[in-house]
Amino acid sequence: MATTFKNLLSTDMATTRTLLHEAIPITGTIVSGTYQDENIKYYSHGMFESVYDYPYLSSSANRIFDLTYGYASDLSGAANPMNAKKLNIYNEMSLVLNGANLEGNIPLFDADGDLSVTTTDKMNACIFICYARLLTKDEIKKGSYTFSYIDGSNGLTTLGDYGAQTDYRVNSPAGEYGLLYTSSVAPYGESYGHIYYQAGIAVITASNDIWPNALQSAWIDTNDITGACNDVRNMWVDNNFNNTTELNSTIYFCRADSGEFNYSSNQTYLSESKIIVKAGDPSNNPMAYITTIGLYSADNELLATAKLSEPIQKDPTNSLIFRVRLDY
After folding, report:
1. Partners of 160 in the beta sheet?
2. In terms of domains, do 239 and 262 share one?
3. Contact status, residue 294 vs residue 286, Cβ threshold 8 Å
4. I want to staple 289 with a disulfide (CB 3.0 to 4.6 A). Which of 79, 90, 236, 311 is the partner?
5. What is the pLDDT of residues 267-302, one digit of tens each?
6. Torsion over CA of 82, 84, 87 and 92, rounded to 10 degrees?
7. For residue 307, how many C-alpha atoms fall within 13 Å in the half-sphere facing its CB?
8. Which residues contact 76 (CB under 8 A, 6 or more apart)?
9. Domain that holds residue 262
10. Based on C-alpha coordinates, what's the Rg of the chain?
11. pTM score, two decimals?
């Protein structure tokens, strides 16, 4: 009987990477209270709120994002009971997404992303949207993010990471991020926020005229964090992006040459020490039908199996190559 195992050479293996994308729409009908706010989970600490795709007490509900608000130390003169928590939110998010500078200080969010201490385009107050990993998967696809909201004074405003396929930032410890613009036509103009692709977090400035001035003042001086988040939810129109799942694969080319794998170890292959498939004629070629391919470790332990859709005939007159793909 021919050998059962055959060693794979380096030339018999290849690796590949495939990026799978899924469109994610988050509509204002869900975010602003389709379920009479039963899909909005509030917390006693009041530092953020969670938005679900269904009433959150339901076993089928999925958290889609957390929403919060914070501002930097130069706005700490506001006398309200949430002042310390707003400062903590901002500093925590900046430390995670920007890291500490060389002096050990937490930098302010910078609109253009260069984190320069000399620039004046600082985002001193920010809305933070932290998406669930269920939606973002491995990362958000560059150039696919848009966020639209509407208010009485500015009308419809849409932010997007336009041009981010080739123009994005890499100076964040949380990974790559793109700038959010109101114009989809290059040159895009002033940036109003960031979208962090691997972290799945959107940071949108709240200290700019893209929001109503009355809301900005309320968020700083009088509103608690929940009030600021509710304002954003009630103005929410649409939010779209594509997520990314990275699928890594190893492809094994399993070769059965003409003189290999022409016999079977199945007990029904023989009868009285004769090969049944020869039909009683010793001059006939032996043959076997390949149904399964096994991948083994160096010490012959079975690691994976691949089933063929139908048995493939193998005899000394043919040579076969089976392509086995292992995804992980």
Report:
1. 146, 181
2. no
3. no
4. 311
5. 666 665 555 655 556 667 778 888 899 999 888 889
6. -110
7. 2
8. 83, 87
9. 257-327
10. 30
11. 0.82
